[in-house]
Design a protein that fits this description.
GO terms for molecular function: ubiquitin protein ligase activity; zinc ion binding. This is NHL repeat containing protein. By secondary structure, the protein is mainly β. It contains no helices and 25 strands. The protein is globular, with a radius of gyration of 19 Å.
Length: 374
């Protein structure tokens, strides 16, 4: 049965709703999602990082029921297995806290965050437990220490520390190397393991991991727009960074801030008691769609919609998904009706055409909607 919830993704009264239809999907009936933090859709497929159970699920067609068994499971051998690294040692076929996803329908890239690596399948996986072909961030598939050798070790162009986000334009690769407070850029998707990054964004060189307020402080996701823009969700400073051209990102600070008025400011909801149309709280993703931008304002349990990609700091959103007012957040009035009646800590966003998919992480489910502004 398909569960349709017309009030779940509210928008502002008096404006056309951002989402015209939405349904709830909970994964496998016997072993549903637990805190899914990554979602991606391409070619009609649905990919979900079932983060709390250390696995990635793949459906070859977008599910049409509230529960559906996956066609492919990565990181585990079946839906009943949930242990870190499949209950054993790390390998090419295991996962530990899988997060960000990207695919063009031919390749699949997964941020295997707590193994401090990114896994690449050169051809789209077709069977349960299929091992990855390439590992980035570790010297081999059996290593999983932060920065290759352990906590406190200086990073290099080849190492990773809690990488939560990945993205590509089909040619280049970007990794949100969150624990090293940087984004790594590769001028092509690696085909060999332990490949070095081409450039670093957010640090003066590959060996630094300290931070300045002008750079990403805790970059959780990175996305590239059709016009060449780059968005980085900078969680710890409650802001999203926008570069008008990703090619400039390694050499300059962001062109635009969403959620803060300047680079020195870092207040949750800009130190307000309630959110507003220009504030953020624990933002974990941003996603370009058409001429506009969707921003996962996770801590406020909403997604902000900008009709066009912002061109100035602190620009207010045009609409939202999840509440009927910009002044409502996850700890405000809506919650008394139960979190299942609203978005609750949405972590990840993906679109294909007018199809919208949201990882509604706090509610342990995926929201599948139809964007009415496409």
């Amino acid at each position: 049965m398909l569960l349709t919830t017309p009030n779940l993704t509210q928008s502002l009264p008096g404006l056309p709703p951002v989402v015209g239809l939405n349904t709830v999907f909970r994964g496998s009936a016997g072993h549903p999602f637990l805190a899914p933090r990554g979602v991606w859709t391409v070619g009609g497929r649905l990919m979900v990082s079932d983060t709390g159970q250390n696995r990635v699920f793949i459906w070859n067609q977008l599910p049409a029921t509230e529960y559906a068994e996956p066609d492919v499971i990565l990181g585990q051998l079946d839906t009943e297995e949930t242990g870190r690294n499949s209950g054993g040692l790390v390998g090419a076929d295991t996962l530990q806290y899988s997060s960000g996803l990207w695919s063009d329908g031919e390749r699949l890239i997964v941020a295997d965050a707590w193994n401090h690596r990114v896994l690449i399948w050169n051809s789209f996986p077709t069977r349960h437990g299929q091992p990855a072909d390439v590992v980035v961030g570790q010297a081999d598939f059996t290593s999983n220490q932060p920065n290759g050798k352990g906590i406190g070790v200086t990073p290099t162009s080849k190492t990773l520390n809690w990488p939560y986000g990945v993205t590509s334009d089909g040619e280049h690769l970007w990794i949100a190397d969150t624990g090293n407070r940087r984004v790594l850029y590769f001028d092509h998707i690696p085909t060999e393991s332990f490949a070095p990054a081409t450039a670093v964004i957010g640090q003066p060189d590959f060996t630094e991991r300290d931070y300045e307020s002008a750079n990403p402080i805790w970059p959780y996701s990175v996305k590239i727009g059709q016009q060449g823009q780059m968005a980085v969700a900078d969680t710890q400073y409650y802001r999203t960074l926008i570069w008008n051209d990703w090619r400039t990102a390694a050499n300059q600070q962001a062109d635009v801030l969403i959620g803060q008025a300047d680079f020195e400011s870092n207040g949750q909801n800009q130190y307000g008691l309630f959110p507003a149309k220009q504030t953020l709280s624990w933002t974990y993703d941003a996603h370009f769609h058409g001429d506009g931008l969707l921003v996962a304002d996770t801590g406020n349990s909403r997604i902000l919609w900008f009709d066009t990609v912002p061109t100035q700091h602190n620009q207010p959103a045009d609409n939202l998904i999840g509440h009927a007012s910009f002044a409502t957040g996850s700890e405000n009035a809506n919650t008394r009706f139960g979190t299942d009646k609203q978005l609750y800590w949405p972590f990840s966003i993906s679109t294909e055409g007018n199809q919208l998919v949201i990882a509604d992480t706090g509610n342990h489910r995926i929201i599948i909607g139809s964007l009415s502004n496409e």
